[in-house]
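Amino acid chain:
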Amino acid sequence: MPKLNALVAGSTGYIGVQLIKLLVKHRYINIKFLCGNSSVGKNIKFYDKSLSKYKLPKIIKFNKKLLNDVQIVFTALPNGEAQDLSKHLSKNHTLIDLAADFRLNKASDYLKWYKQKHRSPKLIKKSIYLLPEINRKDIKKYNIISCPGCYPTSILLPLIPLFKKNLIKFNNIIIDSKSGYSGAGRGVHKKYKDKNLYESLSAYGVGFHRHNSEIDQMLKKFTKKKFQFSFTPHLSPMFRGILSTIYLDLENKITPNTIYNELSKFYKNKKFVKVLKRDSLVSTNNVINTNNCYISICKSKYKDKVIILSAIDNLIKGGAGQAVQNLNIKFNFPEKTAL
């Protein structure tokens, strides 16, 4: 079959570069345009030398005329910019957004959490927040696909099956997540210039991190019960990877083995989610440079509690890999293509 032409907007950030590294290996995709602002005129190999062996277009500034020559648009842009670009799309385009522009169902929620007015509110209903292992069957109806954030991916994959079956108590969910500093983008060194990124661990966004909004929104789809969770992210002295530790209270007569059996059953035929043997100690090193999520169910010293470990690569399963996975599902490509 002929290749589909793709445009990547925001091609030089950590996520954008990772996306290109996947797409150059995709047998059904041709990278037609790479777009940026401060990087116009540069070669992408300037940002990652491993791309030197591929013939790729130089980085140019986006203009709407470029859309005449592509079918797929990937956006890894600062929040808000994909909303502007989306106004120029036709029904023949598929937009796959790796930022937060279409993750929330209400423009008012976007204003609340991202402190800016949504610039394409009419397109929110025409978009889908797609976590492929959970709601992939709905993808065909939409041409704007919003990829989940990296932290929510690591958190929602273990939690949603348990919410669906009411196996846990909903009033005291504690989530402790640690991410490599690449999750904060290339500006992280300037933003945290007074902190030693390579030797220190820092909590941030305590109580009010933006990803609270999409975690809450997604979990509400799977229960009518009220629930409470506390989510605290941390910046770790490593480049990539996320490890989320989730502390749960079990419903009566539910055991850690029940949790293990349910998650194993739910993800039995899912290609990128691996439920490990009980009490396995998961490391980010297990998933680096893969599109996998590794989940481990661990016993607590208390019989009515369980601890779940969830590890992903924030740049792949939490970003570019999930975007490619959604692309493959949307266009009926083999799901593991380029992954």
